[in-house]
Amino acid sequence: MIDTLIQDKKKMPLNSIKLLDCSCGIGTQTIGLAKLGYNVTASVLSRQAIRRAKREANKFGVPNVKFKVADFRELERKMKEKFDVVISFDNSLPHLLTEEDLELACRNIRNVLNEGGLFLKKLKRGRVIGHSHSKND
Predict the structure, then answer these.
(1) How many Å apart are CA 26 and CA 89, to the nearest integer?
(2) Is the pLDDT of residue 96 over 90?
(3) 110 with 116: CB under 8 angstroms?
(4) CATH level 3 topology of 15-132
(5) Strands 66-69 and 39-44: what pairing?
């Protein structure tokens, strides 16, 4: 489903799409998207989760994923590149406890997106919401 949503918006070869999974957990979506051919970077706050995600990626034959420990409230500082697509699934954003933290996370996500980039998030009820980034955002 994620791949279909991305391809509907981004008419580019998969291996040229730079994708950030900014709340990767143990890498479930990361691994699936890397196996399809996306150029994936994955981040999460927990070092332990990153270690597990790396093991899972190697187990499933996708050692080319870049993994980083990063809070999505500080992506702009932690990521040295911009992305065509940023995803945040598994209901991660609602774990932020204040409106200020949510605003900071959204601003950081927007600032690591390329012009025309796509942000997909999945919230508790399972609905996937997508936003395109433009200079006017």
Answers:
(1) 12
(2) no
(3) no
(4) Rossmann fold (3.40.50)
(5) parallel
**Rounded distance between C-alpha atoms, residue 101 and residue 104, angstroms:** 5
CA distance 121 to 67: 19
- pTM (two decimals): 0.85
Residue 129 has pLDDT above 50, yes or no: no
Over residues 68-88, the pLDDT tens digits come to 999 988 999 999 999 999 998
What residue spans define the domains of the chain?
15-132
CA torsion angle 48 52 55 57 (round to 10)? -120
